[in-house]
Fold this sequence. Notes:
Elements: H1 8-22, H2 30-39, H3 60-63, H4 91-98, H5 104-108, H6 114-128, H7 135-148
Amino acid sequence: MTFGRSSAAVVIAAAAIAALASYGIVVLTAREAARVAALAPAPPSGVPKPPDSVRRLEEPETAALPSPPPTPVSTVTADDAPENWPDGKGRDETFYFCTACHGFRIVAQQGLSRERWSEALDWMVVQHKMPALAGAERETILDYLAQTFPSRARGRAAPNPFLKP
């Protein structure tokens, strides 16, 4: 189905576009404005002016510019360096292994027992496809984590029901 020039839908659409253009909401090229003027009826006299709060497009060419791509977010901060964390055997190995995926602050905030650190490593292997640690490398990292970031005494808050006692 096509609409002729006298079709009511075309006339209504042209009138709506003309009204939006008069308020500065739609910006038309000269060719588009001529086509709309030919199709739209003349606006009635006494059409109210838009309020000052209506945003007018002053420079339409800037409105069409694409927005810049989002900046990638890194979880590793400037103070993330092995030297900024407690010294101990396995500090560098632990730091570089953990920061391959996330910032080291998240590691330092955990405060887990050696058994829980081991469970956390196993969970990351399964859930996040982390390379599995085995042998001496796993023991070195677990030793550092358990000694440097041990489990903390529980505060006054209720225990987390999802954690194993």
